[in-house]
Amino acid sequence: MEATLPGHRTMNPCPVWEQKSGRVYLFFICVRGHVTERQQVMSGRNAARLCLICSRDAGCSWSEVRDLTEEVIGAEVKRWATFAVGPGHGIQLQSGRLVIPAYAYYIPYWFFCFRLPCKAKPHSLMIYSDDLGTTWHRGRLIKPMTTVECEVAEVIGRAGVPVLYCSARTPNRCRAEAFSINHGEYFQRPALSSQLCEPPHGCQGSVVSFRPVDILQVSQDPHGRDASPIQQTPLLDSSLRLGQEAGPLSESWLLYSHPTSKKRRVNLGIYLNQTPLGAACWSRPWILHCGPCGYSDLAVLEKEGLFGCLFECGTKGECEQIAFRLFTDQEILSHIQEDCSSPGKDSKPTEN
């Protein structure tokens, strides 16, 4: 079978694994003919369809294509110049919810009955299912900042409270970060991270969460004093702070992959954040690949302490080949040099 619709081309694969049933859901978009994203944005006429196929046998066979455009987007698609999922991976939350990252070029203004596509602006959002993939819904657009391709990871905070972390591409030379406490239906106002740079026009990046074997039970500032809860959670606004109970700020760490240069897509880096709900504390990157690189996707085998990274790379251009690298948690810790700033300060991104 072919994962496409008649007269369309397939783009932006984004799989998610449902652990209870063992099913793999593969999301993608089907775009009519040879219509480009730019043409859709400029005209305000969407040519994309939201599609899904499912495998019950670990990818050996697949279902027929299911068009979810009407079910998930409905009449709102009239305000979307175009949209896409991923590319990358979706996740299953602790609650069982399946989450697929996506973005849409939203047209906020109309002149009488005419669209004004020149005002179309991209915003990230989540597509989710609470019934193990039977039905799917969409969350709110992440506003007001321009955000495009994104990935999410669930961080387990104080007393086991889950928070959904979103890392999104922007044209602002820095990555955007946002948090949700309702499993991705709504995110707080995103903030730019000066520690995570973007090349001109940005680039897709990947993020995963994992629970390390040993977690410090007391969070301290650089001078050895116990850090106050307010200092520890500047990335969460007042409506999303997780309470003041004692215990570690987060039981989860984050791993992030992305080109490390502000000037061009080169030198794929792996960044570690040991306090994702606290003050910005991304490590300096461990360079996984020197030279041109592009999109990437991370995977984690938590119990085995293994990580995998699938990425675009080359010698002259970033799209010459697709490579895969397997590495361990010990390799990460041995290569990465922590450069955690005190609250209110940021480390400078790598310049190349």
Automatic annotation (TrEMBL):
- Cellular component aspect of the GO annotation: early endosome membrane; lysosomal membrane; plasma membrane; recycling endosome membrane
What would be an example GO MF term here? exo-alpha-sialidase activity
Q: Which UniProt keywords apply?
A: Carbohydrate metabolism, Glycosidase, Hydrolase, Lipid degradation, Lipid metabolism
Q: Which InterPro entries match?
A: Sialidase, Sialidase_fam, Sialidase_sf
Name one process (GO BP) from the record: negative regulation of clathrin-dependent endocytosis
Catalytic function, reaction form: Hydrolysis of alpha-(2->3)-, alpha-(2->6)-, alpha-(2->8)- glycosidic linkages of terminal sialic acid residues in oligosaccharides, glycoproteins, glycolipids, colominic acid and synthetic substrates
Q: Does the keyword Hydrolase apply?
A: yes
Q: What class of enzyme is it?
A: hydrolase
Per the database record, which ranges form the Sialidase domain? 6-302
- The UniProt record lists the EC number as 3.2.1.18
Which CDD domains does the UniProt entry name for this protein? Answer: Sialidase_non-viral
SUPFAM superfamilies for the chain: Sialidases
Asked whether the keyword Lipid metabolism is assigned, the reply is yes
Q: Which family does it belong to?
A: Belongs to the glycosyl hydrolase 33 family.
Q: What is this protein called?
A: exo-alpha-sialidase
Annotated organism of origin: Ursus americanus
